[in-house]
Amino acid sequence: MRIPIKEVTPEIGTAHVAGWVHEERDLGGLTFLLVRDRTGILQVTIPKKKVSEEVLAALKEISRESVIECTGVVKATEKAPGGRELVPETLTVLSRAATPLPLDVSEKVPADLDTRLDNRYLDLRKPRVNAIFQIRSAVLRAISEYLWDHGFTQTQTPKIVAAATEGGTELFPLAYFDKEAFLNQSPQLYKQMLMSAGFDRVFEIGAIFRAEEHNTVRHLNEATSIDIEMSFADQEDAMSVLENVVAYAYQYVKDNCADALAALGIEDFQVPSVPFPRITYEEAIAISTEGGEPLVFGDDLSSASERIIGEKMGTMYFITEWPSSTRPFYTMPFLDRPEVCRAFDMMHPRMELSSGAQRCHIYDLLVSQIKEKGLNVDAFDFYLNPFKYGMPPHAGWGLGTERLIMTMLGLQNIREGVLFPRDRHRVSP
Ligand code: ATP
Ligand code: MG
After folding, report:
1. What is the pLDDT of residues 67-118, one digit of tens each?
2. N or C: which end of the chain has fewer CB atoms below 10 A?
3. Residue 317 to residues 83, 167, 205: CA-CA distances in angstroms?
4. What is residue 350's three-state secondary structure?
5. Is residue 241 very low, low, confident or very high in pLDDT (cuts 50, 70, 90)?
C-alpha cells in the first residue's frame, strides 16, 4: 500500500511511496531524487552500485516532474529533508514528463502570473500554491459547518436567469433558445423568495458572474459567493452572523491548517476578534476626506478611500447607514429618514469583503424602489409575487470567497485564490 510521504519515518522500515520527481541530482556513483506528493517531499537515494538493474533502467527514464513509485528501506539521515531517506528496491516510472517543462515547479526559475495560469496544472503542484487551496477548502468547510450549526439550510439557486440583480451593465447575456437570459450576478432575488417560502434561514456557496469593466487585482468575472438570508431579522442580526462566521473560519484555519500556513510562510496567523468595530458611512467619508481623498454624501468609496479608512481602522470593520442612492433596489431604507438605508459593508483594511442589508419586505415600497432605479417592474414579476402573499422581514449578505482568502493569506492578486480564474482576457484553461 502506498503511504503519504508525510508518514515516512525511519521507524516504519520499508515504505512504498509514489509521487512526482521534484528534483534530480546526479553525483556520478550516487543519484538523489526528491519525490513530492501532496503531503511532503522525500529524498530517494540511489547508490548505483548497490541497486538492481531494474532500478537503474528506471532511473535512466526519469525526468523532472515524471510520476514514479518506489519501495525501499527508510533510513535516518540528517542531511535529507525531514531527516530520512529511502533507498529503493523497486523503482517504476508511471508517467514520464516531457522536457523542457513549461514551468519550473521547484520555483528556482520565477514565472509571471500569466505563465503560471497558462500552465496551472504545473503551478498547482507547487506546495505553496497547493496550500492556498487546502486553506480555501477548510474555510468553506468551516463556514458551512457554522451556518449548519446555526439553523441555516444549504440551497442551490439558478445560475441562468431572466433578470439583472445588481444592475444591467455587468451582465453576461446568454444564448438561451428563443429567450433572453443571463448568467446570474448574485443569488439575491432567489434567497429572498426562499424567505417567503418559509425557509427562515438559508445559505448558498456558488458561482456569481459579473462582466466587470476593468481588469483589477480584486475582481473576477466568475467568483464564488457565500450568501445568507435570514427571516425575522434586521441588519444588526445579519452583521452578527457575518463577523462570527468569519472569525470562526479564521480560528478553524489556525487550528487545522498548520502545514498549509507554514508552506505559505505565514507564522503569525491572527484570528480577528469579535465584534468588529462599526462606523457609519458619514464617519467613513469624513475619514477619507481627512486622509486626502475627498468624498461627499452619495459617493461610493473609491479603492483609495477604502485604503485610507482601512489604515485608520487597522482591523476588519463594518460601514453602516449607507445613502439609499448607493444601494440596490431591494435594500430597506430607514423609514424615518429614507435617504439612508439599513445596508452595511464588511471591510478588511485592504478592501470590501461583503455587502449586506436588511431587505425591503414591503411590496409597495419595493415596487417604487425598482421604478426609482429605472428598472422595468414587469421583468421582476417572478420576484415580486412572493412579496404579495406573506413575506417576513429579512436580512442577509454576500461574502466573496476569493477576497476572504486573498486577505486572509495576504495574496497580492485575487487570481491566486482561484484554481482557474476567469478575467477579461482569460477563459482558458
Ligand atoms: P466592488 O465594489 O468591490 O466591486 P461590489 O460592491 O460590486 O464589489 P457586491 O455586489 O456587494 O460587490 O458583492 C458582494 C461581495 O461579493 C463583494 O463584497 C465581494 O467580496 C464579492 N464580489 C463581488 N463582485 C466580485 C468580483 N467581480 N470578483 C470577486 N468578488 C466579487
Ligand atoms: Mg458591495
Report:
1. 999 999 999 999 999 999 999 999 999 999 999 999 999 999 999 999 999 9
2. N
3. 45, 26, 23
4. coil
5. very high
Look at residues 297, 288, 247, 287 and name the one whose alpha carbon lies nearest to residue 269: 247
What residue ranges line ligand 1, CB within 6 angstroms? 166, 210, 212, 219-220, 223, 225, 352-355, 398, 400, 402-403
CA 354 / ligand 2 centre spacing (Å): 6
Which residue's entry shows cell 531527516?
A: 83
Mean predicted confidence (pLDDT) in 388-413 = 98
Supply the pLDDT for residue 163. Answer: 79
**DSSP annotation of 103:** S
What's at 67, amino acid-wise?
A: V
**346 alpha carbon, closest ligand:** 1
pLDDT in tens, 280-339: 999 999 999 999 999 999 999 999 999 999 999 999 999 999 999 999 999 999 999 999
For 231, other C-beta atoms within 10 Å of its C-beta total 20
Contact yes or no for 400/418 (Cβ under 8 A):
no
17: pLDDT confidence band, cut at 50, 70 and 90?
Answer: very high
Nearest protein CA to atom 26 of ligand 1, as residue: 219
Buried b (16+ CB within 10 A) or exposed e, 120-134: bebbebbbebebbeb
Helices 401-409 & 235-256, crossing angle to 10 degrees?
A: 50
Q: How far is CA 143 from the centre of its chain?
A: 12
Please say whether the beta carbons of 67 and 94 come within 8 A: yes
Q: Which residue from 415, 429, 399 is spatially nearest to 220, judged by alpha carbons? A: 415
HSE-CB for 352 with a 13 A CA cutoff: 18
Q: State if pTM tops 0.90.
A: yes
3-state secondary structure of 264: coil
CA 215 to chain centre: 18
The Cβ-side half-sphere exposure at 306, using a 13 Å CA radius, reads: 16
Tell whether the torsion through CA atoms of 144, 148, 150 and 152 is positive or negative: positive
DSSP string, 271-298: PPPSSPPEEEHHHHHHHHHHTT----TT
334 Cα to the center of ligand 1, angstroms: 24
